[in-house]
Predict the structure of ABC transporter ATP-binding protein.
Amino acid sequence: MVEAKALVKRFGSFDAVKGIDVDVRRGEAFGFLGPNGAGKSSTMRMVACVSPRSEGDLTVLGMDPDRDGPRIRARLGVVPQQDNLDTELTVRQNLQIYGRYFGLSRAHVRRKADELMEFAQLTDRADDEVESLSGGMKRRLTIARSLVNDPDLLLLDEPTTGLDPQARHLLWDRLFRLKSLGVTLIVTTHYMDEAEQLCDRLVVMDGGRIVAEGSPSQLIARYSTREVLELRFPPGEQDGVVTTVSDLGDRVEALPDRVLVYTGDGERALERVHGRGVRPLSSLVRRSTLEDVFLRLTGRTLVD
Ligand SMILES: Nc1ncnc2c1ncn2[C@@H]1O[C@H](COP(=O)(O)OP(=O)(O)OP(=O)(O)O)[C@@H](O)[C@H]1O
């Protein structure tokens, strides 16, 4: 669906995307995971045919964005980072007007709007102005709107940024549904849980480069351990114990507010810590996540 080779996006003398290779297959949910400024949006905008590439090869739906931009865009759905709905119009009007942009007939657009409101669970808000919707509802409407032309490929730039957990889960549920209907999804996110929930495969980006690629479970198996022991200490005491904890044989990362011990068995690691007379304020054993993968690869956390 999308193939990029040595793809570069340059702004003046700054390379925001520094030669990436990507291959997105039909029917999969593919993710770009990385912190702010990693180059995810710049990549998405090239795929969406709204920003020309600076160097490299790019094929979207088998076509060249430089030559076939309008034909590609007609088969894409795009959910931008910021909702750009018409807030003074109703939910239904937003869908119908957008449908008319694609040259769809009035009758078709009317039917489609009903179907999409059902999909986005907004039927009971059909005649309300967008202004009055919650953030999660607006996001669902933006997604519904992007589906008005029955796209083959849906591009979602940070789909759940700024939403509360319940709204995020409802949105993920809708995206799963789309995937099960065979729509190919490309998602950018800086939330590791979003990437883990949604993506069959993903690339981890940092500073305009791809630093790893695989399924969430492959990445975790390759770059992390089964479990992580998180230790928190009273203010000022952490530095004094890091060397002792590091001596116990597991890989240790000291973050400003906690110490992470990468291990196959968190409870046993905690016993070893206690055995050295180290008494943390609190301890937590959890499974590894993509956040741990990112930390391993870059030495930094995804979200500050
Ligand atoms: N139009 C532009 N002109 C100059 N620099 C830009 C432009 N757009 C993006 N950049 C820079 O390119 C880099 C990558 O930005 P990009 O928006 O692609 O990152 P991102 O991973 O999507 O992050 P975010 O989540 O903040 O959008 C950043 O350093 C950004 O400041």
About this structure: The mean pLDDT is 92. Residues 2-214 form a domain with the Rossmann fold fold (CATH 3.40.50.300). The chain has eleven helices and 13 strands. Residues 58 and 64 are 7 Å apart (CA to CA).
